[in-house]
Design brief:
This is IS630 family transposase. The protein has 65 residues and is mostly helical. It is built from four helices and no strands.
Length: 65
């Protein structure tokens, strides 16, 4: 099911990946940052936006405040 333009591959440096992984694992990181980090990490692995949205539930309204 193709619903839009092809997604460009996300390329993270080793340092960026390390920081995102640390954020996603830390117990004291706010959940909105954990979810954003996980979205970026999954996107880098080649998951589609639809797959990511099924894996990581997001409250869209919370991100536009």
């Amino acid at each position: 099911m193709n619903t839009g333009p092809k997604k460009r591959p996300l390329e993270l440096t080793d340092k960026q990946r390390e920081i995102l992984q640390r954020l996603a694992r830390r117990r004291l990181t706010p959940q909105y940052l954990v979810k954003r980090a996980r979205v970026l990490l999954e996107s880098e692995q080649g998951m589609s936006n639809l797959q990511i949205s099924r894996l990581i539930p997001l409250d869209v309204a919370a991100y536009f405040r």
